[in-house]
Amino acid sequence: MRVLYFAWLRQRIGTGEEKVEPPAEVRDVAGLIAWLRQRGPGHAAALADISAIRIAINQEFAGPDAAIRPGDEVALFPPMTGG
Amino acid sequence: MAVRVQREDFDVGAELAALTAGRADIGGVATFLGLVRDTAGGQTVGAMTLEHYPGMTEKLLAEIEAEARDRWPLDATLIVHRYGRLEPGDRIVLVATASAHRQAALESCAFLIDWLKTRAPFWKLEETAKGGHWVEARESDDAAAARWGKSDKPAR
Question: Is residue B72 within 8 Å of B108, Cβ to Cβ?
Fold first, then answer.
């Protein structure tokens, strides 16, 4: 599974992309975020507040309860500020 | 019917000429041109860097454009959005909508920029005397997008 980070999530975590293989009991985005927090202090800080994070799975917006599967592209980012 | 995400600057006159070339059915074109401001929240902004999600950005802009074309009778549309480092006065975004009549063009242009601001995956990093900081999403932008009614897809 590929996890992508943008904006301040990318800066705090220190990378824009990582390949991860979460255990089988990680079934949804909220579970993935909880699991990712254990990867280090940068992850823990960036992912502390799930309400500050927006989610896309395979480039479609999704909520924290959305299911994830091996091979998915999961992107985590702050609310958008384009235009 | 065109969406472009690019680092390079664009020429508004050339873009509009290309949009309407050979199209005598178009009665009016509405445009929104977004520029980099030199101040934000009382701070002087020296420059701004726009980050985006390659792939999803183009997909989202195409979806937003398709939504506009469902809602209004449009003959031609164009969205150009830049990314990378920009300085005050630089062009960031161009939205142009063409229709037989002005109302559809003006309304759909406002709709596109309102929706783009809250749904397209762009993030702005402003450089000020205090250092770089990520621009926070504004509730007023959410309200501006919400006045156009619901989408069938979840937003932020």
Answer: yes
Please indicate whether, in this complex, the C-beta atoms of B123 and A77 are within 8 angstroms of each other.
yes
Rounded Cα distance between B27 and B25, Å, is 6
Q: Which of residues 40-79 of A touch B (CB under 8 A)?
A: 54, 56, 59-63, 75, 77-79
Render pLDDT for B49-63 as a digit per residue (tens, 0 to 9): 999 999 999 999 999
For chain A, give every domain's residue range: 2-77
Question: Residue A7: pLDDT above 80?
Answer: yes
Q: Is the pLDDT of residue B24 over 50?
A: yes
Q: Which CATH class is domain A2-77?
A: alpha beta
Asked if CATH classification 3.30.1050.10 holds for the domain at B2-146, the reply, yes or no, is no
